[in-house]
Amino acid sequence: MERTLPPxxxxxxxxxxxxxxxxxxxxxxxxxxxxxxxxWRAFPWQAEAVEExxxxxxxxxxxxxxxxxxRGVGKTTLVPEIIWEAATMEWDDDLGPPHVKLASxxxxxxxxxxxxxxxxxVSVLNPLVHSFDGERNLIVLRxxxxxxxxxxxxxxxxxxxxxxxxxxxxMTVAVFDEAQFIKNESWTQFLPCMNIRxxxxxxxxxxxxxxxxxxxxxxxxxRFDWPEYKTIRVPSMRNPYFTPEMDDLARRENTxxxxxxxxxxxxxxxxxxxxxxxxxxxxxxxxxxxLRNGKPLILxxxxxxxxxxxxxxxxxSRDYMACTILxxxxxxxxxxxxxxxxxxxxxxxxxxxxxxxxxxxxYV
Length: 364
Fold this sequence. Notes:
By secondary structure, the protein is of the alpha/beta class. The chain has eleven helices and 14 strands. Strands 1-9-2-8-7-3-6-5-4 form a nine-stranded mixed sheet, sandwiched between helices. Helix 5 (184-190) links the parallel strand 7 (173-177) and strand 8.
C-alpha cells in the first residue's frame, strides 16, 4: 500500500513534516553478513530506514533522502551501516566500483562517525580493506572480482570548506550528518558531482535554520512535484531507550519551538522558519488581511508626495518572489506582493505595475 501525503495547500506549507517509517518499502536489503560482523543490532526504525533506501536508484526513482531525525534517536549508529552497505554493493553502471562520501558541517562532527567506520575497517571488517590513507581520510576496499586490486572507496569530507566539496564525480553515494548546518555554498559545489553516476544522497538533520537543507527537505514532502526527493521524519521517541521521562524533560528544558524542531523534528516558527517574531510585528490585532498569490496587498494607496522604498527578492534560489514597499517617513508597510509558480515574464509585469504606482527606491 502506497503512502500518500496531504494535498499541498498554502495554509499547510509549515505543517508538512515528511513521511514516517513503516517498514512497508522494500529498499536496500540489510546484509546479514555485515550486520553479524559489525555486531550491529538495529533499532526497529534503523532497520526500516535501511529498507527505505534503494541503491542503486531505480530509473526515475528517489535519489535524495532527507531524514529529519530527532536528537538522540540513534542516527550516529545507523550511518556507518549505510556507508558499509553502499561501499560493498555493485553499482549499476560501467564506471567502476562504488565511491562513498561521508560529510558533515564541520570536521569534528564528521569525525564522530568517521572514527566508527575507521575502527571497523582496521578490525572486524579488515578482510574487506585493501589500504588506508589517513592523511586523506580514505579507506580503499578490495576489488570484488580481483581481491588483490583496489576497489570501492570510502572517504570523509568536511563541508566547512566549500572548495573540498567539488570534483567528486566518481561518487555513487553521499551520506551527510548535521546537514541543516551545512553552508549553502558547500551544497552548490557538491550537488553537481552527483550527476555522472546518478549518485544517491542520504542526509540527516534536525528542523533548524533556513538554508538549503530546509528547502530540499520541503521538496521531499511534495513527492508529486519532486519524485526524486523523499523526506522521512524520525522523532526522538523512536529510540527505544529514549524514555517518556526524557521526552518530558526535553519538552520542559526547551521552548515549544525548539522542542518541536529538535525532538519532534517538525519545522516550526522561530526555530525553523524564514521569519521570526511575527506576532511582535503585528500592530493591529483586530484586523486580518489575506495575502493572495500573485495579487498585491495594498495597505496604503500611493501618494503623489509620498517617499517610498522597496525591497525585491527575485527568488533565484527559491521559488517565492516577494516585493515590499515601505513609507520612508513612517517606516510602515504600505504594499506587499508575493508570488510563486510563475514565469519570470509574468512576474516582471506584476512587479513593474506595483513599482510604477509608488515609484520607490528599490533594493534587490
